[in-house]
Structures are given as structure tokens and as C-alpha cells.
Amino acid sequence: MMNQVLFAGVIGLFLTLIGTPLLIKLLARKGYGQYIRDDGPREHASKRGTPTMGGIAFILSTVAAYFLSKVISGESPRYSGVLVLGLMVGMGLVGFLDDYIKIVKRRSLGLRAKAKMAGQLIVGVAFAVLSLQFADSRGQTPASTKLSFITDFGWTIGPVLFVIWALFMILAMSNGVNLTDGLDGLATGASVLVFGAYTFIGVWQFQESCANGETLTNPGACYEVRDPLDLAVVASALMGSCLGFLWWNTSPAKIFMGDTGSLALGGVLAGLAICSRTELLLAILGGLFVLITMSVVIQVGSFRLTGKRVFRMAPLQHHFELKGWSEVLVVVRFWIIQGICVIVGLGLFYAGWAADK
To answer: Is it the case that residue 237 has pLDDT exceeding 80?
Structure first.
């Protein structure tokens, strides 16, 4: 049963390693290249025309890896995994439309803001509503109307507030990854680390599930999660697929993920957090995305209130580029920050389990 986690990761890695260069050739032949801001660091001008919409590669590879791992292991797909994958594909589709209009229609801002928001809202609401359905024999649904950190809190917010909360998480993480995706390999590598954390969390929750009864290591700290192993399979597939994509996306990038990839990754991170009952923990596990998002909020807020900018340029990674750091230096140091966030997040996750002994 546990083999499917390994199968998913290996298949995802293999598919993007061989599939991404094929996508690069296809996009290059069609002339689907990246638009580069004129007000950004000068070094980025050389990236103009690099194939984008690379998120297609790891989205398709993740979906294929998930279902192939199920076929190989003889296990059936579970509602939680399918819903989270559906959220990823839906958000990826919104991002694809945005990229397509930018590149093919030559409209630099892509989808109109209202249309883009409407697409994200439709996908997010559909996920939130469906995640409260499909109760198992123990009455557990993929999501819960309770807020969660490392497990659910003891009080509920109700279905309406849950949908609003889920939408906030999905939009916040999607835009967080989107803002982070400004340097070669930065968002991809950071995402690999978070998906690795969620692979561990899913496996741990499966082993310590309340459904396992007498075999529990710590009966006082079991997890009420609908399909924890299935979430681990999804996270492993994503980790492998993003690692394979990173081979081609790292500096100098042969392809960019585009909004297709960044919105999909942000959405699926929120979906994993919601279904694994680690909603607030995601702010720590995905700390780099939160940090970069806050840099934009601070920059915009400061300029509107005082007319002065806190950073040379936002998002934060471009501030350090303009200070003279090389792109690779920024990326590697930001990966280190993200790694620390994951270590702290997993430490808190384990400490919460151990404290209930």
C-alpha cells in the first residue's frame, strides 16, 4: 500500500525529465515566449522569448503519476486526492488562459483582472463545496469546517465561512507562488521542499490515523484525516514532477512555468493543507511564499501611505538582485530560507503529536 507513494514520485520525476524538453521544442516552434518587464533587473532582458507555460509539463505528469501509481499498486483513487488534483488542474487552466492571452494575443497583462479572479473563484468554490461532501464510513469528509494547525481546532466555523476561508487560502497561496516565480528555479525548488514535507505528513498521518485503532504508537494523538495516504501520493507525485521540471527550469532556464504552473502549485498547496488539516501550518511550511507576498504588501502600502518605497523593487527577490546579488545567489539563499521553514514546520507538526502523549 505504501509503495504507491514511491511509485508516484518516481513516475512524476521520469515524466517531466523526458516530457519537458519535448514541450520546450513545441512551445519554441510556436513562438510562445516569455514577456519580460522593462522595469525589472537588466539581466532579465536576455530571458525574453524563453518558452513559457511550462506548468503544463508538471501538471500532466502529476496527474499521470497519481493514476499510474494507483494502477501499479492495485489501489483505488480516493476522493481527497482527486479533489486536490482537480483544484490544481482548475487553477492551472485559469493560469493557462492568462498565459495564452499574454503570449498568443500579445496582450502583456493577460486575462482581465476581473476575468482572472472570476476563474479562480469558480475553481476555489467548487473545490471548497465538494470537499465537504463524500463522507467515509467514519463520517470524515476530505475537508473539515474546523480551522486547523497541526490538527483541527475544537470549534467549527460552519460551511459558509469555511468556503470563504478556503478561497482565501487558495488565492493567497496561488498569488504567493506567482509572485515568487520571478527567478530561474526559485518557485519550483521551493515547492519541491514543501511537497516533500506534505509527503512526510501524509505518510505519518496514515500510520497514526484514528482508523488504525489498536496499532497506534500514540493513541492519544491520532489524526482524523479522510485519506492521508492518498494526499501523500499526490504530494510525492508533485515533488517528483517538480524535481524533473527543475532540471530544465534552473538557471539558465530553458522554460518557465508561467501562470499555468504558479497558480496550479499555489492552489494544490492550499488543497493539501485543507485536506490534511494543516491549514495554518502552511504559513510556516510555505514561509518563503508568505515572506515574498508580504514584501509586495509592504511595498505597496508604504508607497501609498508615505510615497516612499521600502525595497528597491518588489517582490523581494528583485530587491536583492538590484543590490548586486547574482540571480543564482538569490535563488540558493531563498531555497535555504524555505528549507528552514520546512524544518521548523515539520518540527512543530511532530512536537504537536508528541505533546499529546
So the answer is: yes
